[in-house]
């Protein structure tokens, strides 16, 4: 299997690379990934500043939008919805009460789950498995896979290894 270099050019044969070359290439990719993430973070900060100014102008003008030769800008409402950490027990009790209310009304009580994302937490399933001899809750699939973890050696460990 041939890989690609940082510029997308093919020709690197990862099978022919030494362990050290593989690790150095991986670390180089990780550093570049960090650089790109930082550039993206800065770019998003600039973009947010521009959007704040556009919104401020619309507010000052008491407008819902404006048009330029390049684009149409509209004010949009975005709801940020969250539950404070201390509020979850209260919210869960409400969900249970709502499920009971729906069941009494002969509606599907599982509708309450629409308030939550449809995913199972890995930690909860693993905790259940650990407490139940590896058994998995009903209808849950667990598919183990192996990956690779690469940790940079400290400067002192690299120095000792080179000596």
CA gyration radius, whole angstroms:
27 Å
User: What portion of the residues fall into strands of 2 or more residues?
Assistant: 5-15%
Order of helices and strands: EEHEEHHH
Number of strands: 4
Any low-confidence stretches, pLDDT <50, length ≥5?
none
The average pLDDT is 90
- Main pleated-sheet profile: 2 strands, antiparallel
Descriptive report:
This protein is mostly helical and 163 residues long. The protein has a domain at 2-77. Helices cover 48% and strands 8% of the residues. It is built from four helices and four strands. It has helices spanning 19-61, 88-104, 122-131, 155-162; strands at 2-4, 10-13, 65-67, 72-74. The longest helix is centred in the N-terminal third of the chain and has 43 residues, at 19-61.
Question: What distinguishing features does this structure have?
Answer:
163 residues; mainly alpha; two-stranded antiparallel ribbon; 4 strands
